[in-house]
């Protein structure tokens, strides 16, 4: 759309929209959640102790708990009663951001992709050297395009570099090397990540009559999104042709898409595969990028450990046969970074489906409202982590714990056992 037209439309629509957003759609506390939600939740958790509580968020209400009793009860409640799929719809606004929707309930259709991820994760060591090569290539390129100044210090824009590199690694795992090395796919897909995120947020906070206009301003004619979908569709068709042409080779699938295609019925339409794979690609690219950005920030703000970290990684990361347990300092850094930054202050997000959900202590979550575990509260508890607010690189060293552990509410980054896979 012509820029002058866009600006004119914005000037006309913005004042009534602002008034509507401030006074009708949001009351001031839910607006405040957008700017300081984490502080609000932590302060309320301090006041409430073990009791559950709630905060208004734009367009909905978020109920939070921190106690073991609530954790156990939620863990034993069916996903048909407290649904993670309904929450993901509320969060990602797929209809607006992706152009398709999914059901409120986690049905059997969701399982083939989970199995496919498991297959590729189990053989991740095969992909590891290529992941390291991608990181090296992207960081070297960023260094070259930002040459060092007089004091030999080069500046690399952290977020765009990591976002690009981690999106490539996710693409490698899901779609394969050729797609991850396609510059046009990578450029358009990273733009699509940003656009879809903005559309989802705009859809949540703006009145429904205005969000299509804002969506059009952000996504234009959906060129980036269409390119991503067309690429996934091509890879799907490629797999189908290869399968039809050859005998079963018993070769291990190299991508999540291939592992997925081996388990789904042959008559599934390509668009159905594209939507599922796109949802996975989008969600996987998001979390892992923030986590990596925090880790790099923490490494470079604790410079005295850099030499030891380099020493430890030498010969391990780029060797597919090496044992990842040989990186205890890096693992400890990652865990302390996850604990202190805690990029998602809440986890195990659920929506009460159809009727209110009531805990045994009488706390009730009305139908359609969101229930989550405030994990940041646990990681900031001085009785569990001495001087919990401080970053201690060695805190987890020798603890026998790993970042990927799922022991329960004391390390809830990956959810609870309801969705364990
Ligand atoms: C920092 C990175 C990540 C974090 C913190 C994270 C965390 C989570 C959490 C908390 C859940 C929901 C658990 C629950 O509600 O009980 C989840 C679900 C899921 N995650 Fe991740 N995840 C990450 C990266 C990834 C990646 C890289 C992939 C795939 C390649 C992935 C695939 C999935 C899938 C498919 C589900 C849904 C599982 C199901 O429905 O059974 N995640 N993740």
Automatic annotation (TrEMBL):
One CC-aspect GO term: membrane
Keyword list, A-Z: Heme, Iron, Membrane, Metal-binding, Monooxygenase, Oxidoreductase, Transmembrane, Transmembrane helix
Chief location of this protein within or outside the cell: membrane
Any Pfam family hit: p450
InterPro entries according to UniProt: Cyt_P450 (IPR001128), Cyt_P450_sf (IPR036396)
Membrane spanning stretches: 6-28
Keyword match Heme: yes
Subcellular location: Membrane
Cofactor: heme
Molecular function terms, GO-annotated: heme binding; iron ion binding; monooxygenase activity; oxidoreductase activity, acting on paired donors, with incorporation or reduction of molecular oxygen
PANTHER family: CYTOCHROME P450 (PTHR46206), P450, PUTATIVE (EUROFUNG)-RELATED (PTHR46206:SF5)
Protein family per UniProt: Belongs to the cytochrome P450 family.
Entry protein name: Cytochrome P450
